[in-house]
Amino acid sequence: MNWETIPLGPIQTNCYLLYNDKGEAVVFDPGGDENVLHDKIHSLGLQPQVILLTHAHFDHIGAVDSVRNKYNIPVYVHTREADWLTDPEKNGSSLFLNGGVYASKADHLITEEGTLSTGAFSFEVMETPGHSPGSVSFYCGQIQTVFSGDVLFAGAIGRTDLPGGDHSQLLSVLHNKMLELPEETYVACGHGPWTTIGTEMDSNPFLNGF
User: Fold this and answer.
1) How much is the pLDDT for 209?
2) Residue 202 neighbours by CB distance under 10 Å
3) What does 20-76 look like in DSSP terms, one character per residue?
4) Which of 21, 29, 56, 58 has a Cα-to-Cα distance from 149 of 20 to 30 A?
5) Which domain holds residue 18?
6) 131 lies in some domain
7) pLDDT surpasses 90 at 20
8) At CA 75, angle to CA 48 and CA 108, rounded to 5?
9) Per-position DSSP letters for 141-165, written without gaps between them
10) Bridge partner list, 117
11) How are beta strands 121-127 and 114-118 bridged, if at all?
């Protein structure tokens, strides 16, 4: 398996394409710029199978309906953010943008941690709230990578000053879940460069001394 990073949308949110040798693909967090994303999918010769959302802030959902409709594929989001896709107040677009960002309701709601299998792909779903109440991270052991959304960044952690954010909860999640992953795990972050669990354990100033 391979994965590609495509920064999209108004604040360059990382969309990820995870794909296998057959060209089957998972789309994580298609945040906007649908033409750029479609061109990338076409250039790689991929057939998207599913959209997985780490959370439903506006900058992670802007191209959801375009991708869903073009490839006729389902969307997954955590149940705590089930109504964020259709509500600009909740997804934050009414606060940060002149116009609202909307998407249709998700096809499937994540209700608990555990294994999520979709087609040829399998992930361990980790509930990782704190940045937002329905944040989830998708760990793919086969490639030792966790798609973490805005939970953990290279040298930083997710902001918690938005509605539903909780700083103490996020720190607890980071130490009790994220940092329990193998140190060699790649972290595919929602913004900025990828990192590893080991690197953040050693050098992330927000995690030292907790």
Assistant:
1) 58
2) 11
3) -TT-EEEEE---S-HHHHHHHHHHHT-EEEEEE-S---GGGTTTHHHHHHHHT--EE
4) 21
5) 2-203
6) yes
7) yes
8) 135
9) GGGTEEEEETSEETTEE----STT-
10) 122
11) antiparallel
Residue 209 lies in a domain: no
Residue 138 lies in a domain: yes
- In this structure, what DSSP letter does residue 123 have? E
**What is the domain count for the chain?**
1
Tokens 């050693």, located at residue: 202
Judge whether 210 lies within some domain.
no
Indicate the DSSP class of residue 104: P
Question: What is the Cα–Cα distance from 8 to 10, expressed in whole angstroms?
Answer: 7
Q: What b/e string do you get for 141-164 counting C-beta neighbours within 10 Å, with b at 16 or more?
A: eeeebbbbbbbbbbebbbebeeeb
- Under 8 Å CB-to-CB from 35, ≥6 apart: which residues? none
| Residue matched to tokens 């992330």 | 204
CB burial readout 92-116, b (16+ within 10 A) else e: bbeeeeeeebbbeebeeebeeeeeb
Q: For residue 26, give every residue at least 6 positions away whose Cβ sits within 8 Å of its Cβ, in sequence order, or none.
A: 16, 17, 18, 19, 48, 49, 50, 51, 52, 118, 121
Residue 205 has pLDDT above 80, yes or no: yes
The CATH number that applies at residue 171 is 3.60.15.10
Say which amino acid occupies 67: V
pLDDT given for residue 93 in this prediction: 86
Classify residue 82 by burial, with Cβ atoms within 10 Å: 0-12, 13-18, 19+: middle
pTM score, two decimals? 0.96
Beta bridge partners of 24: 47
When pLDDT is cut at 50, 70 and 90, the band that residue 170 belongs to is very high
